[in-house]
Automatic annotation (TrEMBL):
Pfam families: Acetyltransf_10. The keyword Acyltransferase applies. Keywords: Acyltransferase, Transferase. Residues 3-151 form the N-acetyltransferase domain. Signal peptide: none annotated. This is GNAT family N-acetyltransferase.
Amino acid sequence: MARIGVVASEDELALAYDIRREVFVEEQNVPAELEYDELDATSVHLLALAEDGSPLGTGRLIHGEQALALTGRQGRVLLGRLAVVKAARGTGLGAELVRAIERAGRENGGVELELHAQVQALGFYERLGYVAEGPVYDDAGIPHRTMTRVL
């Protein structure tokens, strides 16, 4: 069983970045300059660790003024950069991370959550109550679709 918490140190943030590098940059060939951005500095980052302390998954929450600027909707927060290492996929950890980010969203004033799902992950998010809206679009060479859920 993994423990999921808000990143509380530079060491934990480095572990979250390592997971993102492994999943997005190495596995999915997302350019590193697109993966890490200015939103990282103001986002709430979550990290899932195994009992032995090894990193298993991460995600971030964009909230406040940054979320308003990106979505144009008061009370809408954004889930992003959800990544689970290959060895932990299929264990339910991704869903646990989404729920933890939703809790963080509510704690940070969110009443609705938006995410930009890779098309191949639409079913995963639909099972968690998210609804797709708008057309498919390209993000870093990967087809995505916007999804939302009331918190």
